[in-house]
Amino acid sequence: MFKCLIGPDKTEYIIHSSLLASQSKVLDRLVNGQMKEALEGEVHWAEVDTETFIRFSQFAYTGDYYEAKFQPRQGSDCFPPPPSPTQSKAVPHTNEETNGPSGTSSPAPGAVNPVPVFARSALQAHSVVRPPGSGSWSGGERVGETALKEKKNLLWAKFKSLHADKGFVGPIPMNSSGDDTAELLLSHARVYVFAECYDIANLKSLSLRKLRQTLEHFQMFDEAVYDVIQLINYCYENTMAGADAEDMRSLLCMFSACHMEKLWSNKDFQELVQTCGEFSQGLITQLLHRLD
Prior knowledge:
Residues 72-111 are annotated as: Disordered. It comes from Bionectria ochroleuca (Gliocladium roseum). The protein is mostly helical. It has 15 helices and five strands. Strand 1 (2-6) and strand 2 (11-15) form a beta hairpin.
């Protein structure tokens, strides 16, 4: 057995040494090498919080981990009933999966009350037969608007294809306007940072896949924008730019580019773009795919 002392208070956890060592070469040296930790049979991870270590332990023993739960948002009067077992295990197919991310003409993933398909078709049919007048768009402008919409949808499709699901997909959390989603999003990011620090490749992949699944079905309410900002801040404060084109930073930049219209309406997000140059560069790189 190997003793792990977690956090500044040195909360004690015990894990099988062979299991810990099998997670990565870095941890194998920690357990079986000549370092102080190996000789004493214990390690103090002061920078790791207990919840993240518990999730790592769950992964080590089962190959999966449980993310944090939604909490009622402070000051919110919205307390929706918990989802039924069948509802939590299957994400309903919604119009945004076909029509792409938020914008001026297509519903966002998780948009509230999306326009029904039949109503949208009727509006589109009406616009086709209406002759262009002095105040209407020309045919060239319509073609350009359609092309931009298609490129936005292509970027969203690319985002959904990142870190593809492998086998069974468990329940995917679905947030409401009364949910504080920050801890759930950050729980995946903290696991990713831990996995990156100790080079646990499978855990990195799992945390990215779980976060992508959550963001794919994320309801971008006004209050939830602040939770996304917290997630981006944490990521850029605790990770380094690397050669990996599909790391946590790239995932968040692509997600932000897909939801740029909604995010940019928030002054805190604008300040984040102004103050975090690395994020701005990654965001612009992804936005170019909507214009290229």
